[in-house]
Amino acid sequence: MNLVSLLPSATEILVKLGLEKNLVGVSHECDYPESVRSLPQLTSSRANSKLDSAGIHQSVLEVMKNAVSVYDLDVELLKSLKPDFIVTQDLCDVCAVSFSQVEEACKELLGCKIISLKPKRLDDIWNDVQNTAELLGAQQKGNEFQIEVDERIQAVRDRVTYLTKPWPKVLTIEWIDPIYVGGMWLPEMIDIAGGQVCIAESGQLAPIVSRDDLEKIEPDVVIVKPCGYKLSQTLKEVDLLEKQIPKWRNPPRVYLVDGNSYFNRPGPRILDSLEILAYCTHPNLFPEFGEQYKEGIIRLELGLKSSRQN
Predict the structure, then answer these.
(1) Domains parsed from the chain with CATH numbers
(2) pLDDT at 310 over 50
(3) Which one-letter DSSP state was computed for residue 252?
């Protein structure tokens, strides 16, 4: 059975299901685990990812005006790999190759089937894993993962149950210029981690907000995790971030998190993201997560002076 994955979260799902050996091709953004980097890459981006966040945003808008997708798909390479299944998504044209492109390519691939992921909330993520496992004959691995999901979520819930309310107000920033606030599954995660959601709504796309909007909310915790950005990229935009967010009367705790690895990939590492969120919201309650994920978290002190977590 030959499998092709056209987005990073799908690749991580397939690996979690024990199907890495069946992968014959991936997207250019698939980078976890490290071993998948050596596989043939079937996609490339038309947007200029070397710009700052404002420039990337504008580049994406320009591409979407003039093209079906932000991404190119190497159809000839895809044909040569002879996949039995292509795992892709039908949710966000900025996240991966458009579904219409994949459908068109599949017309030339005899017997190839598409598995399309479309997660908007946490349960959708877990259901996508289970459905993929069933379609690909990996039900046992799927069941084992669901047990892990239930146990790790409950472990966080149990620890925040007895916290005094009101819980901390948590703002998650998904893009710096313009400011996008994390939506979709993020509000549910904030609730599980013992926080109050700021601005966004469960199952809804990330809203764009103004500085005036942000001034009204007075968050206790701000987590900055730009979609697709590694920490090194986010650190380069700290000055821009400082201009974009207000000088709140009561300065919140501000954390930078590796957005390329966590939060924005609706796959197995959403569980890691939940634990990072729990730590950032209640560092004294979840100190072990601060230690476990310290390479992916940076605390910004007053004036946005950074210090890596210990």
Answers:
(1) 3-143 (3.40.50.1980), 167-308 (3.40.50.1980)
(2) no
(3) P
